[in-house]
């Protein structure tokens, strides 16, 4: 927690503008979702879809803010405090316009959060449908990561079904990813999904504003 509060003070470009109304539209694109059930190890699973990120509208810092705010919400769950979170990134649609936003400054901030800069433990990072132009950014990010974090990164490529289901059962995954949990948009009807998160953010608006000065 000490590292996280220090990081917030040192990154005003992110934490100094945690105003929910400014990022609700990003949540409504279904860029991010939290799967209905936990994985077999008890971790929360957060799913990101890069194709829903329009870099002409949203900056990398906007995405960072959404992730931080969601993390602030789910870390309240005792099971998540114990078992952490795992992430799945669908990188289909990654373009040069996305890559240009991942500056060295952004990379360092990402690396800090992943390496004990946030009290929510990241137990696994899964990348699917990653295009060749993504690997340049990926290699830059890896340079700043600890060996422990690197060991938790899994690259599944375009033929991701078998590899992904070794970690997450089909019953947990959306049907767009050869799963059985229904379409991705249905997650907006579930607890801690985009729709519920929007309601939570609105309800806790004053709390999130205080994050800037804690």
UniProtKB/TrEMBL annotation:
SUPFAM superfamilies: CRAL/TRIO domain. Residues 23-185 form the CRAL-TRIO domain. One of its GO terms (molecular function) is vitamin E binding. InterPro entries: CRAL-TRIO_dom, CRAL-TRIO_dom_sf. GO terms for cellular component: late endosome; membrane. SMART domains: SEC14. GO terms for biological process: vitamin E metabolic process; vitamin transport. This is Alpha tocopherol transfer protein. It comes from Laticauda laticaudata. The lineage of its organism: Eukaryota, Metazoa, Chordata, Craniata, Vertebrata.
């Amino acid at each position: 927690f000490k590292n996280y509060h220090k990081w917030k003070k040192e990154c005003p470009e992110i934490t100094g503008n945690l105003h929910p109304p400014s990022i609700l539209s990003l949540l409504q694109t279904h860029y991010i979702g939290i799967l209905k059930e936990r994985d077999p190890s008890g971790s929360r699973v957060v799913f990101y879809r890069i194709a829903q990120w329009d870099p002409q509208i949203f900056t990398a810092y906007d995405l960072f803010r959404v992730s931080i705010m969601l993390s602030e919400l789910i870390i309240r769950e005792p099971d998540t405090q114990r078992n952490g979170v795992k992430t799945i990134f669908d990188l289909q649609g990654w373009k040069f316009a996305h890559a240009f936003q991942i500056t060295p400054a952004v990379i360092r901030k990402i690396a800090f959060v992943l390496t004990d800069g946030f009290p929510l433990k990241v137990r696994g990072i899964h990348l699917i449908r990653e295009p060749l132009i993504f690997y340049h950014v990926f290699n830059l990010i890896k340079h700043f990561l600890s060996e422990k974090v690197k060991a938790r990164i899994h690259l599944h490529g375009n033929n991701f079904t078998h590899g992904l289901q070794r970690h997450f059962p089909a019953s947990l995954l959306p049907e767009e990813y050869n799963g059985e949990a229904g379409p991705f948009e249905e997650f907006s009807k579930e607890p801690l999904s985009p729709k519920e998160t929007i309601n939570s953010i609105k309800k806790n608006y004053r709390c999130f504003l205080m994050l800037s000065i804690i």
